[in-house]
Amino acid sequence: MEKLKKYVSVKDEDDFYHQGAVELLIFNFLLILTILTIWLFKNHRFRFLHETGGAMLYGLVMGLIIRYVTKSPDIESGTVYECERLKSGPSTLLINITNQVYEYQYKREISHHNVNGHQGNAMLQKMTFDPSIFFNILLPPIIFHAGYSLKKRHFFRNLGSILAFAFLGTAISCLVIGLIMYGFVKAMVHIGQLKQWEFHFTDCIYFGSLMSATDPVTVLAIFHELNVDTDLYTLLFGESVLNDAVAIVLTHSISTYSPKENPNAFDAAAFFQSVGNFLGIFAGSFAMGSSYAVVTALISFMHLTKFTKLCEFPMLETGLFFLLSWSAFLSAEAAGLTGIVAVLFCGVTQAHYTYNNLSADSKMRTKQLFEFMNFLAENVIFCYMGLALFTFQNHIFNPLFIFGAFVAVFVARASNIYPLSFLLNLGRKQKIPRNFQHMMMFSGLRGAIAFALAIRDTSCQPQQVMFSTALLLVFFTVWVLGGGTTPMLTWLHIRVGVDPDEDLKAKAGSQSASNFDKNTTKAESAWLFRIWYGFDHKYLKPLLTHTGPPLTSTLPEWCNPVARLLTSPSAYGDQLKDGDTVYIINNDELAENCESSAHTPLPAQDSTGSIQATGKEDIQEGDLGLGGYKLQLQHPAGQLQKNSLA
Amino acid sequence: MEKLKKYVSVKDEDDFYHQGAVELLIFNFLLILTILTIWLFKNHRFRFLHETGGAMLYGLVMGLIIRYVTKSPDIESGTVYECERLKSGPSTLLINITNQVYEYQYKREISHHNVNGHQGNAMLQKMTFDPSIFFNILLPPIIFHAGYSLKKRHFFRNLGSILAFAFLGTAISCLVIGLIMYGFVKAMVHIGQLKQWEFHFTDCIYFGSLMSATDPVTVLAIFHELNVDTDLYTLLFGESVLNDAVAIVLTHSISTYSPKENPNAFDAAAFFQSVGNFLGIFAGSFAMGSSYAVVTALISFMHLTKFTKLCEFPMLETGLFFLLSWSAFLSAEAAGLTGIVAVLFCGVTQAHYTYNNLSADSKMRTKQLFEFMNFLAENVIFCYMGLALFTFQNHIFNPLFIFGAFVAVFVARASNIYPLSFLLNLGRKQKIPRNFQHMMMFSGLRGAIAFALAIRDTSCQPQQVMFSTALLLVFFTVWVLGGGTTPMLTWLHIRVGVDPDEDLKAKAGSQSASNFDKNTTKAESAWLFRIWYGFDHKYLKPLLTHTGPPLTSTLPEWCNPVARLLTSPSAYGDQLKDGDTVYIINNDELAENCESSAHTPLPAQDSTGSIQATGKEDIQEGDLGLGGYKLQLQHPAGQLQKNSLA
């Protein structure tokens, strides 16, 4: 008896493994389809449905199949059992069923009205995986890659505007969406669609904050392919990267804003506490991320006399790089900060310092590894979004709320872009032209972050309404706005086929004509960044990398013994290496620096000489993103030329 | 009220995310420590504790800390609740606790005597992760990498012996361990330590099958570093790779062997059904794995007129390669076959066909990606094994059983290696010398696979006894046998510092002196493989890759129209490309082939010319395994020389 029973149980567990395999297989299948589709699209130069849109579409179809084709073998799961002896839900529950003890693990809390909808399909439940997988595993590589592949030169050139759009713009967007939604909620109460208590003002603001994370991955991919004007690209890229971080911290701060008495009344103390929270979490996460990167830089830089350098072992170096960057995310999460912000700045700092210390082999390896992980994670998320429309079981589609959200999102985007552009243009030497503003307005896509924030908590009805609405907004913006990018570019007469370096030099040249001097550049980059760059160039770069002037020449004389100890031997005599630092100081040396740095021999000696040069040039561009192909579009007619494959 | 409650729940869920982050962070921390240790060891040329041993040690210490330092906040979890209304454990359970519904997910079945041991530490429970993660996520990259990095030339040279050790040897080992353990169990029953019904003969055989998976990852890493004699390396590598597959299928077949009446009696029908199962599952998995690889080869080979080849997009190519290989594993699991076997042969086939079609960039990418994933997965598993000793909550350490297992494992290894070597030496031209046999005997380490098989089911007492014993055996063999590898090599006077190519030529030369002719090689590789190689060279290679003679010349004349359609244009005129195929036909052309193929231009054109050559040479060696460093040991004194870093 015991025997037979045991083997039955083994068989059951085997079934469980097979189930896990089936779910993973479904995702693999969707990804394979997506890749084949991308290949097809690339061949036909089809740009009206981007790969992410395609992934979403396949997910949608698969969700439909799972929902309506698979049977529901698990009828028990709709029943609710009473348990009088417990006070709260423990993380593990042991249950005695017909003399056999089963262990159950806490999954989530669900509200009463969802219990009925729960009857049925075990497959659907399996396909809706744990939101913590999004946060801990899928998002970090995407965000890290964004930070690691930041085009630093162009980014810092537009830093002021980017910060304004990311911080002020996101706050405006959050507030505008919140206010409009509150109006709609009031109207819904008025016509009797909602009971008063269901939606508070804080819920509306919460919705505003999560819908403020723009994610123009589709748009940027097209921009990159078409070589759209670099300033526009940088503005949108910088905004979307930072704005994800801002939106996440904002969402977190709002969810901790709990006024003491009436949830609808404005509580100044709670508000300031939230603002304090926001600043504290942002600063803490920033510090956490950067310090992990600095540790990585120091480890990879170490050249103790008895030790072979770590860069002699590319595999260990890559492993350490990967693990420390991921740890930055996890530590921030574990400490109650925001991992996304930490990993973003970790990526930026890694690219700035650690990358210079890596061996040529590791440069290639890390670049390709993060690119690959980004690619997979992104497509998994978009597939999953498609799946979620049919497999998620607690959707609440409220037509008025959805309509309101569409209106709110577009009004909020407009009241973010146009007023801020106007204000920024007052101060900018290089104005943001009208057509750029329209394009930025148009590129306000919502994607992975908005979805991940919305799915994080779907236990109550308001959250479920918000989740369903957010999902529809993501679908609409990715398919309609994403698909409309190429026509929109043509229609707005935006320059395409621009070489970033040429562009930079041309713009610099057009400003100051022939007598180009240091003051122009200095005036352009704000004083704060000049100070930072001086400090970085003189002290941090020599301390953390092999580049920059030796510390012995930059530190005061009495520090000499320490300075000599801390400076890499290779730092003496090649101060011209670090192209982008020098750039901030003096713009017109740039071209020569780029060339010279591409040919300076790097410390590691191996046979792949040509990688070194490629690697070096790449990071100066920061272009780690898109698998090495380029398509050129003829300007301005928008006709497609033969693609020149790099 | 509702409001406050909602925010409390948000806070709870946040805590859950943070928990997930903490667990991942612990693993990250262990891996970082391991990498730093490896670096230290490499510097000090310390070879008595291998990285996997180090990872296990750190895991052990961390497990100790988690067990005795963390508090146990979750007192509820020891209580068993009765549920009369249910007949069996559903996959999801909804429980109403103080008017709030919680959803619980089925985790596992536990036996009554474990319920008490369950009281307490939630952290311990969190650290013991789902065994399906081992099977679906951590094992596939390790096994795939083993297949992908197979040194084909040396492997096929010793194929007969390898198959004998892997199939016959594993069966012998399984049976011997089973019989000895059954003796010990009888003795334990006799002295009253066990009740009769607890351990059946099938349980003993089950234990034998799971302990028969040798995993000499430590030994092979040291062999590789020291360039130990290639034949010995190949025999051990080939045996361990195939024997994992055999042991897994064997375990599966034995668990389905359920005699009708008395479980102790021998039931011929059930036995033959198990043997049939074994053969069916093995063949099915082999077919599944190879066909996925063939599909990958076909896709990457396709050159439709309207399409740019896939190899123009290295990222898509790498992605497809990765996903299809993983799908081979998942499909086999989902179909009730053995994923490990599927992914192993998928790896071998991918290396044989698909690799030749990849662009130079993708060759690098896939090689590094799989190497990296293998490295991470391996170290995660060994860390986890260390952790499991203290965090796993249902250990049963039975001293007599453990002693019996140690005896059984060594007796079984001896009765596998020595008799088989004797028999093989009767037929082998190149005998397996005495010291090689001793070394193979000594290298019978147990590792990841034995552990993964043992942890797969720990619901009953016999399984728990087996799991605890297997864990101790892994510890002992990895630390003691693994650490003793270098001294043992010296003691047995085994050649080190051997160049594989030189070695092969020298051995071939010594056999037939100056008048080396084709017949020697032909006689050495059995007739079955000559036929297979002829077929492969003439039909499969031209069909699936760009190498080999054009199909038009190998197929009968009436097939010409079809042949012309299927042959790659680049196949005409470069028949000398595929070094290892030609090798089987004629050994002494090898050196020239290697050189010529290393310099033949590959289809994809990019700037990294030197990678191409490296990539090409690498696959001919199949050496994708160990991050590009070499250590040389002076023979025979065993003194360590300065390491020459490649």
TrEMBL record, chains A, B:
Keyword Disulfide bond found: no
One GO biological process term: regulation of intracellular pH
Molecular-function annotations in GO: potassium:proton antiporter activity; sodium:proton antiporter activity
Keywords of the record: Antiport, Cell membrane, Endosome, Ion transport, Membrane, Sodium, Sodium transport, Transmembrane, Transmembrane helix, Transport
One GO CC term, this protein: recycling endosome membrane
Lineage: superkingdom: Eukaryota
Residues spanning the membrane: 20-41, 53-70, 133-150, 162-185, 205-223, 278-301, 335-355, 375-394, 400-424, 436-455, 467-485
Entry's localization field: Cell membrane; Recycling endosome membrane
InterPro entries registered for this protein in UniProt: Cation/H_exchanger_CPA1, Cation/H_exchanger_TM, NaH_exchanger, NHE-6/7/9
Domain named Cation/H+ exchanger transmembrane: residues: 33-491
Membrane topology: Multi-pass membrane protein
Gene3D superfamilies given in the database record: 6.10.140.1330
Coiled-coil positions: none
NCBIfam families recorded: b_cpa1 (TIGR00840)
Family listed: Belongs to the monovalent cation:proton antiporter 1 (CPA1) transporter (TC 2.A.36) family.
PANTHER family according to UniProt: SODIUM/HYDROGEN EXCHANGER, SODIUM_HYDROGEN EXCHANGER 9
Name of the molecule in the record: Sodium/hydrogen exchanger
